[in-house]
Every structure is written in C-alpha cells, then in structure tokens.
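Record Sporulation related domain-containing protein, 138 aa.
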Amino acid sequence: MKRLITLFFLTAICFAQNKDSLSYYEKQFNPAIYDIKDLIFPKKFITDEDAQVISGYRVQILVTTQLDSANTVRNLAQSILSQSNFQSQKVYIIYEPPNYKVRVGDFEKLEEASLMRKFLVENGFKFAWIVNDRIKKR
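=>
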C-alpha cells in the first residue's frame, strides 16, 4: 500500500511539471547580437576626471575594518572642515581589503598637506598622518 501511494505521488509530481520551463526572457535571448570582444574587453571611455588624476598627498585620519566607524569619522571630519578655511577639501573613504581608510584632501604639495594635518591634529585627530595617493588635480 505504501508503495502504491508513493508511486501515485511520484507520478503526479512528474506530470505536474511545466513542459515549457524556459521563461519569456530566456526565449528572447539571442547570443548572436553580442560581440565577444566587448564581453571580454569592455570599452572604457576616458573622461576628464580620469585624465586629471595625478600623484599627490592626502591626510589619513583613520584605518579601520568597520565601515560604520569610517562613516562616522568621515562625517565628523566633513563637519569640522565645513566650519573652516578648508571647506573645499573632500573627505574620502578608501577600501583596501580588509581596511577602510579615511583620507582628507587633494594636495599637490607636501606643504599644503602639512597645513591640513596640523589643522586636523588641533581639531581632535591626534594621529593624522600624510600619505602619498592618487589625487584629482584642481
């Protein structure tokens, strides 16, 4: 009896399956319209922003593995900078696994970065230090 019931359910399951299992989108897919070169080597257009990246300096104020901590420190630094002469400087979070690094500014000269470091130390970021980085040219 158990075998008969099991056989009945297995048969019902087999016939309950939809014969046309391809979705609408799978039916409409045409691989001939794709160029394999574009899939392997995607085209990259160089924008003005990409062309203006140079070697320079930033002031690093935090290294952490916690994104929440990095966001909190970035927001604090942005609020301090917005009330100073350094309003135009941006605060970046850079992810280099497994660390999040909070960096301030885009400086071409070391002297400019030193002024920012001094300002940040005076405003509570006691362990701020200057690092080499790729910056956006002003």
